[in-house]
Amino acid sequence: MIKISFFLLALVSQVNAATDRNYAGVKQFLADLQKNYPKTVQTFTLGKSDSGEDIVGVKIGSGEIPNLVVGTHHGNEYGSTEVALAFAESVADKPLNHQTMYVIPVLNIPGYNSRSRHEMANGRYHDANRDYPSPCGTDGPFNLKSTLALADFVREKGIVGSATLHTYTGAALYPWGISTHDVKTEYDELFIELTKTATAHSGYQFGNSTDLLYPADGTFEDYAFMEHGVWSILFELGYSHSPSQADIDKMIERNVPGLRDMFTSMPSERAEKHAFTGKCEARMLGLDRRDE
Ligand SMILES: [Zn+2]
Fold first, then answer.
1. What is the distance in A from the centroid of ligand 1 to the CA of 157?
2. Which end of the chain is more exposed for a tag (fewer CB within 10 A), N or C?
3. How far is the CA of 115 from the centre of ligand 1 (A)?
């Protein structure tokens, strides 16, 4: 009888592994990945967050093109963490040709552990994905150590393409997603091709955030493109901020192949014409719902 209870307990905890995972569990997952793929995977520390904890990631493969996947700018969006971990495992098992893939599953550690959107620094809560320099406004820039560490990392490593993972609309979004009517970049056709490829398995919508969701100023995606010409795509995964294990399995099944295909078809160099030359619209500033 006791044995059966233990068995059931173990089964239940396994079933809820993804939805209940905390940051210690994420670090364990990455350490195990390195152990299982010692020739391909290396863990690294991005830097310290304001909570004093190390933000960790994995470097996978050793190709000449450095690309990046980041989950969980918003701590409550744990579904994005799971897709990042599954993507890391997939690439570790089968690296992408010519690429070195950096995966940081959780940027906002305290938010992730408490399942809350914001991250605290100096006694105030901040929205990590409104904390980057941006043409039409920002909450920051860089109120948070986590966002500054990520910006430094992108510069130092010469990141070419990136995917940042969020929940929950079912969309792949490219620049410009800011408070402007001038949402076109010089590369709209290419961005459309990339996001079409990325969403072929999921059937998600694709476009810019301003048109599809709402304008958001100070996001990583617009910053990385504006500052460096990084091919930066934001994913709104699934249809819930509190996905069940079955929802998460579906999100992984539908998005990991799309992410692989997208990075495979990404340019090998950054965009050249990445300055924002449009006009900001002050009247659009209040449209940011801040719920995704
Ligand atoms: Zn989000």
1. 24
2. N
3. 12
SS3 content of the chain, % helix, strand, coil (to 5): 40, 20, 40
3-class SS of residue 28:
helix
Domain boundaries, the chain: 22-287
CA of 243 to the centre of ligand 1 (A): 14
Question: What is the structure's pLDDT at 5?
Answer: 56
**236 Cα–ligand 1 center, Å:** 7
Contact status, residue 231 vs residue 192, Cβ threshold 8 Å = no
Residue 177 Cα distances to 137, 285, 287, angstroms: 12, 12, 12
Q: What is the pTM of this model?
A: 0.95
- Mean pLDDT (whole number) for 244-248: 96
pLDDT at 18: 86
CATH architecture classification, 22-287: 3-Layer(aba) Sandwich (3.40)
At 92-117, the pLDDT tens digits run 999 999 999 999 999 999 999 999 99
